[in-house]
Amino acid sequence: MKGEAYYSVRMRASENGPHEEGGKHISGGERLAPFIGVKDAVSDLLEKALSHSRGKPDFMQIRFDLVNEPIKFVQPLRIETNETKSAEEGQALARELISRAGVPKNAVDKAFQGIAEYSDVRGAVLFDIHSGRRIDGRKQKGVRVSRLDWPEADFQMWAALCGMPPNPRLKEALAIASKVCEHPAVVAELCWSDDPDYITGYVAAKKLGYQRITRMKEHGDESGCRIFFVDGLTDIKSCIDGLEKQPVFIRSGGKT
Ligand code: WAQ
Ligand code: MG
């Protein structure tokens, strides 16, 4: 791959106008592709947004940018699945896992109190584990982890080795979690989908790996969540910069 140019391809789609004019977020996505792969990346992202369970978009933006920085390779986090029977049980387990990753209990409580408010954010919320406050300052936009991808052949090999279904949603979520948890300022991530038909979520951390939780919300619920628990005493501007701009390929290399 050395010497080959890569492009960051990004998509966002909304209903009732663009996001910045109050439109409802429908779908977003990011890919990293060589020039020859840009067409497929654009077409995958277009397809993702046009057939979405959150609604029919009337605004979409797809752009691509040449990436000049060298691409970093990151191993996928180790994966484990926790079966939970109800949203309540799932959320209780999530809280416990986040504490275990090193987030003080009162910060976990404060983050969960803010979840309803954060569910309108179309990226992720950065939450400081010391002050128990949101610190990204990005309002409805949040922080969007971009410039990442997991080449399909390596993902398929990884999925077969782990006995996991090779579905694009898992691929995307594990890629984001692996990039995010690799950053030294990030202590843990909490996520579940804003898609009404998908109730599995996860807690991820360097220490814990990617802990799937099979039931985190009720079917039909359109509120999602993505919180990065960070050490606010470090340089947060550079953390946001890294999450948005450091190009990353996930690569298992045939290991789990
Ligand atoms: N960067 C930051 N935040 C993002 C990104 C990103 N690249 N992509 C999505 N989000 C935020 C945004 O606020 C979404 O509304 C929210 O996360 C949920 O996104 O079976 O599908 O893509 O192991 O709906 C997890 C479990 C699925 C997968 C999560 O999230 C599994 C999912 P969605
Ligand atoms: Mg979604």
From TrEMBL:
Alphabetized UniProt keyword annotations: ATP-binding, Biotin biosynthesis, Ligase, Magnesium, Nucleotide-binding
Catalytic activity: heptanedioate + ATP + CoA = 6-carboxyhexanoyl-CoA + AMP + diphosphate
Keyword match Repressor: no
Pfam short name (any one): BioW
Cofactor(s) this protein cannot do without: Mg(2+)
Enzyme Commission code: 6.2.1.14
GO molecular function: 6-carboxyhexanoate-CoA ligase activity; ATP binding; magnesium ion binding
Magnesium among keywords: yes
One Gene Ontology term from the biological process aspect of the record: biotin biosynthetic process
Pathway: Metabolic intermediate metabolism; pimeloyl-CoA biosynthesis; pimeloyl-CoA from pimelate: step 1/1
Purpose: Catalyzes the transformation of pimelate into pimeloyl-CoA with concomitant hydrolysis of ATP to AMP.
Oligomer and partners: Homodimer.
Family assignment from sequence similarity: Belongs to the BioW family.
HAMAP family: BioW
Name the record gives this protein: 6-carboxyhexanoate--CoA ligase
Species per Swiss-Prot/TrEMBL record: Bacillus paralicheniformis
